[in-house]
Design brief:
With 92 residues, the protein is an all-alpha fold. The chain has a domain of 37 residues. It is built from 3 helices and no strands. The chain is extended.
């Protein structure tokens, strides 16, 4: 028969301490990833950005937001990346 014991509810301090000492990788919550950059990658100094208004259909914006969440990005960052990528393609 399995040992059936009740889990003690942690205090906020105990919980903070547990997270400080516990690896999310070791717990199987996340897995490590290897990040590599292209050889010709150069960091650029980006100037100040300007606010631009853009009207989109509600369903289009919702789809963009869903994609952004899946990629771990803010939706405006994703749209800016798409625009920048397209401008580079047009230059070629």
């Amino acid at each position: 028969m399995k040992n059936m014991h009740k889990k003690k509810k942690m205090t906020e301090e105990e919980l903070r301490d547990w997270y400080d000492k516990t690896s999310m990788v070791d717990q199987g919550i996340v897995r490590p990833v290897k990040v590599t950059f292209a050889k010709d990658f150069k960091a650029r100094v980006v100037g100040p950005r300007r606010l631009v208004a853009l009207r989109l259909e509600a369903d289009t914006l919702e789809k963009i937001k869903v994609l952004a969440v899946q990629k771990g990005l803010n939706y405006s960052t994703l749209m800016r990346m798409w625009i920048t990528e397209r401008l580079r393609q047009e230059k070629a």
